[in-house]
Design goal:
By secondary structure, the protein is of the alpha/beta class. 33% of the residues lie in helices and 24% in strands. The chain has a single domain (3-139), classed as DNA polymerase III subunit chi (Rossmann fold, 3-Layer(aba) Sandwich). GO terms for molecular function: DNA binding; DNA-directed DNA polymerase activity.
Length: 140
């Protein structure tokens, strides 16, 4: 059963969401945990790919876009991962990942954007209705 946490941002905007996702997968990678960054669109996945190179000076997080077909400690994509080599899911998508039960840990990043916040409430309720107890972590 995965551990599920909703990270609530007080900063609005795409930069805060992407930077938070980058910091989380960087921390996970340094702890030896492989991650999958799930985006809504190919454009968002490409933005995450770029952001992982630039979000922090002198930072290096080995990553690849899922479509590249090559493995990396951090994968970025828009569809389900077909293997169990990435136990952490960082979900930036609006929908509930259909394969969410296969992950050991799920992080949902929520910013104050009205539509994204409402979509996160729906996901929270679905998790809860399926017997999970999602946690919430407020970030500043």
């Amino acid at each position: 059963m995965p551990r599920i946490d909703f990270y609530l941002l007080d900063s609005d905007g795409e930069e805060a969401r992407l930077d938070t996702a980058c910091r989380l997968v960087e921390k996970a990678w340094k702890q030896g945990l492989r991650s999958y960054l799930r985006a809504d669109t190919t454009a968002e996945a490409q933005a995450l790919d770029t952001r992982l190179w630039t979000f922090r000076k002198l930072s290096f997080v080995p990553h690849r876009l899922q479509q590249s077909g090559r493995d990396a400690p951090v994968l970025i994509g828009t569809t389900a991962v077909t293997d169990d080599t990435h136990p952490l899911l960082v979900n930036l998508g609006r929908a509930l990942p259909e394969d969410f039960e296969r992950y050991q840990r799920i992080v949902e990043i929520v910013d104050p954007d009205t539509e994204r916040r409402e979509a996160s409430r729906v996901r929270y309720k679905i998790y809860r209705d399926r017997g999970y107890t999602p946690g919430t972590i407020k970030l500043k």
